[in-house]
Predict the structure.
Amino acid sequence: MKERALPYPDLILFNGKIRSLAPSGAIYEAIACAGGRIVATGKSDDVRRLSGPDTRLIDLKGRTVIPGLTDTHVHLAEKGTAEMEFADCRDFYTEVRSIPEILERLEKRAFELSKGTWVVAHGSPMQDFRLKEKRFPDRNDLDRAIPDHPVSIAFGAHITIANSKALALARITRDTPDPAGGAIRRDPKTGEPTGELHERAQLILKKVVPEFNYIQLKDGIVFALNQCLERGVTTIHDIVRSGEPVRAYQELLREGRLHARVSLLPRVIESHIGSQSLIELGLITGFGNEWLRSGGVKMSIDGGITGRNACFYEPYEDDPHNHGIIRIEQDELNDTLLKCHQAGLRCCVHAIGDRAFDMALNAYENAIQKSPRKDHRHRIEHMGNWLSTPERMQRLVRSAIIAIPNISIGYYVGDAILDCLGEKRLAKAFPFRTLLKNGVTIAGGSDAPGYWPVDPLRDISACVSRRMRWGDVLVPEERISVGEAFAMHTTTAAFVGFEENQKGTLEVGKLSDIAVLPEDPFEVQPEKIKDLKVEMTIVGGEIKYQA
């Protein structure tokens, strides 16, 4: 039995299967927690003898315990309140399958509001591929259904569609030029805006769409964090766009309402937060405590596959004149990234297309060459989804850049991506086996919750089985083992967060962040891992969720 000298444990779990996920592969029957840390592991009888008069004892009855899971790429503060307040037209959450069904939901929301009030809604990424009409609704559809309200509906992060009233309030007309890094889609016959706004063009509309109030923001964060706990997630890396979520998280911690651990990744381009202000403040990655800390900064190069805005060298398969959108030019990227790197900030760069990959790698290599720095743990968000050529993998390893792929994107919209990019570019989609074989560090990020739920067990299941939601097995030769898939959300995820000495395994001295499952995920069929119900989630030795 392993233990350390501390007062009586607060909590003991016994008569179970404790998978430590430590390099040793150790499996125990019991685990004890005190003061938010693991203080003992071993056989049930031995660990139970450590109990005191106030120790809570939980008989696992053969259930399996794993380390609390981490999602390294979420938009929780941005989307948590939307989960509560927006009209929900997402087909992954609802039975919406056609434009009339979307309009019906918008009409229902409009009926609840006074005339002239904004109707704000969200759909799913690439929903146009799955709707009966094989297109998004346009301003005319929205005008006919909701004539008396301005309407804004986002289909993922990269496309928003507005009706005429909303366009008028934003002063978007046929004469409005496309902003740099964005596009206003127009009717080819009339030149009038169709209502469809891509990438930075969305920012024009967002200036007039009402913001959530601060109380709604805080409640939305709590709501979304509770959803995380239901799937065994005890740590998230949250990408935030302004200072309000930063303040909200701090207040929730002070109020005792922050029930999971958060690493903050503020945007520094296309954001209310400027990189220079963070640098001048002296903020560096790692500032904070075990519950809330600075994780670095986020910036975006291109758009998303949704709307065909990710930037590729080759055009889209179904849009031969379109290569995507670049949101930041190489010089600005190089300058911003270098300054953040020199200031001690870890950088996380969004790059989805292969041209964007190369821009990110160029910027990192430039920064590291000009200002060598050990253990920076810089990241490329979404790299590892596809087009990870041998040269790009070598560059990643050489510069010690971490890849944050998103198997969830393939799981939900892989069939639509195939139509966009073609079989050739997706021949090695989500090449996790190849990435690991070549020494690339990869961690799991879902890009949730606005598009699909935070759910590492779903993503682990897909990594191992390669069976996607749309039914097909996607590139089966890129399957990885259950242990490798769990590492993306435990040990490696902890490393990505500079927290490998604090979490990721169930070992004496580490934080007592724990998930309890009814069965051992290493022994069920890979396709069944996603179906395992989390029965209990413990953070810092306290039960934060119980089914």
About this structure: The two ends are 30 Å apart (CA to CA). The chain has 17 helices and 25 strands.
